[in-house]
Amino acid sequence: MRSEYAPLRAPPGTVIHDLATRIRRLPPSCGPVRLVGVDGHAGSGKTTFAGRLAAALGGAPVLHLDDIATHEELFAWTGRLLREVVEPLGRGEDARYRPYDWRERHFGTARALPPAPVALMEGVGAGRRELRPHLAALLWMELPREEAWTRGRGRDGAAQEEFWDGWVTAEHRHFAQDPSRPFAQLLVRQRPEGYEVLPGPAGTAESDHSLTHGDGPSAVC
């Protein structure tokens, strides 16, 4: 499996397609599904990257953790995710969940997620400890947290400033208690054109249990 975590520095148009080929070669991790987590700080580009990777995988389904979290449960959604999504996929069944509406503050109509050969799960916390046993691979968007948060605030505008103030505190607490980056097999860096994919701490000799007490390099950037 080590070759699956070698660097990808191909021409910009081929990196994601090469990554998709690697992912297809991985063994299933959640019943018949190769469940791939895409984690990183809010504003680091997870949603855009996951969408492009899903397209390269022929339209793989994507679960956005923004649809699972709520105002009251920014990170306390693990049990619901396991019941509604992970356990059905593990049985080879359609998962059904109700996406949360952040404007109306309630859950919407149920949505199905099929047990496809590959499914992506993107969002802050996709690599948390309760989910890692079900993942075929964990990818980390390699962008320092302050830069990611600045991008996120700029994207969401002044109307969301109060929410972001609370989010930053909650995210910092989450990654301090349950970091994802030390367990990522691959790091994804956005370039002016395309992406670069590098071995992560769990895919190289860089892996060190001491990292689990912090937030990786992003904590000091």
Describe this structure as you would to a colleague.
- The protein has one domain (2-215): P-loop containing nucleotide triphosphate hydrolases (Rossmann fold).
- 29% of the residues lie in helices and 18% in strands.
- The chain has five helices and ten strands; from the N terminus they run H-E-H-E-H-E-E-E-E-E-E-H-H-E-E.
- A six-stranded mixed beta sheet has the order 2-7-1-8-9-10, covered by helices on one side. The protein has a two-stranded antiparallel sheet with strand order 3-6.
- A hairpin with a 4-residue loop joins strand 9 and strand 10.
- Helix 1 crosses helix 2 (46-56).
- Residues 205-221 have low confidence and may be disordered.
Short description:
The chain has one domain: Rossmann fold.
Give average pLDDT, whole number: 87
Fraction of residues in β-strands = 15-25%
Taking the sheet with the most strands, its summary is: 6 strands, mixed
Approximate shape: globular
How many β-strands, per DSSP? 10
Please tell me the CATH architecture by its name. 3-Layer(aba) Sandwich
| Poorly predicted residue ranges | 205-221
The helix content is 25-40%
Q: How large is the radius of gyration?
A: 17 Å
Task: Note the gap between the termini.
Answer: 31 Å
Strand order of the largest sheet: 2-7-1-8-9-10
Could you say what the CATH topology is called? Rossmann fold
CATH classification class: Alpha Beta
Number of domains: 1
Element-level helix/strand string: HEHEHEEEEEEHHEE
Number of helices: 5
